[in-house]
Amino acid sequence: MGIDLSIIWFTIIIFAILMYIVMDGFDLGIGLIFPFIKDPVERDMMVNTVAPVWDGNETWLILGGAALFGAFPLAYAVIADALSIPITLMLFGLIFRGVAFEFRFKATEHHRPFWDKAFIGGSFLATFMQGISVGTILKGIQVTGRVFTGDVMGWLSPFPLFCGVGLVLAYALLGSSWLIMKTQHALHDKMSQLTKPLTIALLIVIAIISIWTPLAHNAISERWFTRPNLYWFLPVPVLVVMCGLGILKAVKRRADYAPFLLTLGLIFLGFTGLGISLWPNIIPPSISIWQAASPPQSQGFMLVGGLLIIPVILTYTFWSYYVFRGKISEDEGYH
Asked: Percentages helix, strand, coil for the chain, rounded to the nearest 5?
């Protein structure tokens, strides 16, 4: 029995997406919670917590997209057609946010409010479109043969839009819990106060999506509620509630690291549930990873490069976060 390269590449893509969600999630989340902080000094501190590392976080998005293109070209083509508008808007949001991130430090006091608004708007647009894209894929994409035949505006439906709201809340919670870990004094207290309602709101959204998904999709319902899968899924909602309550308790006792780590656990559980719901389809409801895969020769050739580059990315990512570990103060800056 040979090695199934399709499963290996699917695992690599899932890992890259999860790394992107975790690492760029709190980065985007800082932009989402910018409107709650009016003090320019505190805003500078918020941005300075990610200034040394933010541009490297999107490496994982590039890796995931390139791997999808090479390993599953049919899936890449269908997703590019079905989600051309939200993906384009997401890229505009990421670009505009990146420009605003750099320009706000160099702008005059008169122009800085404009770049702050651009930072907020770009962060929201990128996050909301990512959530819509995930919701559209989970809802299912109509494919005839090997061609997308659905509605290019199908992403403008209630379930994907609600998933967009859910991801905005998830990234905002990542951002606030990250700032609890990285800041101190007044800003730390403000983030602790903000984390409480964000946690409760995200738990409510997760509950609604967890009910909505099986009701709207029979295939997912059968996968969730048939044995032995049911026994594997039962601990998930319990763990989600435990993580949520853990965040609230950690914030109450003024913990520094626990809120962020528990938020990562909450995101991981949600992402894992999404992956299990779709497996083995890469384009639900009918295209599996094997149907969408490129020839084994192509996947094998790519795997050589992937096994070389992924450890390098992991190493410099770990090193950059290690170098800039710890809390920051008002007089620290990286621009």
From this structure: 75, 5, 20
Spatial CA neighbour of 148 closest among 84, 82, 83: 82
Q: Is the pLDDT of residue 287 over 50?
A: yes
Altogether, the residues listed in the chain come to a count of: 335
How far apart CA 244 and CA 194 sit, in angstroms, is 14
pTM of the model: 0.90
What is the 3-class SS of 123-178, one letter each residue? HHHHHHHHHHHHHHHHHCCCEECCEECCCCCCCCCHHHHHHHHHHHHHHHHHHHHH
Query: Looking at residue 128, what is its pLDDT?
Result: 96
CB 12 within 8 A of CB 67: yes
Per-residue model confidence as pLDDT tens digits over 122-170: 999 999 999 999 889 888 888 887 788 888 888 888 999 999 999 999 9
